[in-house]
Task: inverse folding
């Protein structure tokens, strides 16, 4: 395995950490960079999971700090909180499985970032939220890969 391989793994990992793009973009990105589907999935899953614990634990403090630091951030923070609030009913109604479904559905406005944000807004403990986010991210990776490349290539 050469340097180019590891560079592409690192880029796929980093792309999957970007909100909105997440692994829904990172898996096809990795494959187009020459990585196999399984390597792309692994890098994307791991990269997508990195921000989640930090969001669950620290986002409320970060939001409070942003509101105090600059008034223009208030609208940004309010928008993010409103987005989380709009997804809250899924998680409240079904608890753990609601969070899994929210993260697993590969549509805009869902994913690990949104799931972690919703969990934080609901004051969910990390030890309860993170396993649901992990399971949701793995399911999303399988769904994206199967839709994009077919079940035969994934399994």
Result:
């Amino acid at each position: 395995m050469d340097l180019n391989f590891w560079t592409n793994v690192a880029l796929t990992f980093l792309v999957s950490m970007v909100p909105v793009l997440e692994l829904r973009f990172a898996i096809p990105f990795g494959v187009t960079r020459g990585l196999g589907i399984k390597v792309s999935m692994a890098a994307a899953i791991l990269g997508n999971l990195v921000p989640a614990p930090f969001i669950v634990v620290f986002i409320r403090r970060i939001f409070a700090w942003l509101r105090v630091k600059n008034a223009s951030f208030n609208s940004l923070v309010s928008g993010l909180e409103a987005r989380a609030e709009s997804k809250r009913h899924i998680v409240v109604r079904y608890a753990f499985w609601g969070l899994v479904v929210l993260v697993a559905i590969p549509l805009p406005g869902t994913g690990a970032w949104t799931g972690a944000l919703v969990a934080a807004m609901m004051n969910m403990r990390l030890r309860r939220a993170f396993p649901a986010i992990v399971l949701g991210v793995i399911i999303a990776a399988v769904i994206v890969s199967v839709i994009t490349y077919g079940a035969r290539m994934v399994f």
About this structure: The chain has one domain: 3-154. The chain has eight helices and no strands. Residues 3-154 form one domain. The helical segments are 3-15, 22-32, 37-49, 51-69, 72-104, 112-121, 126-149, 151-154.
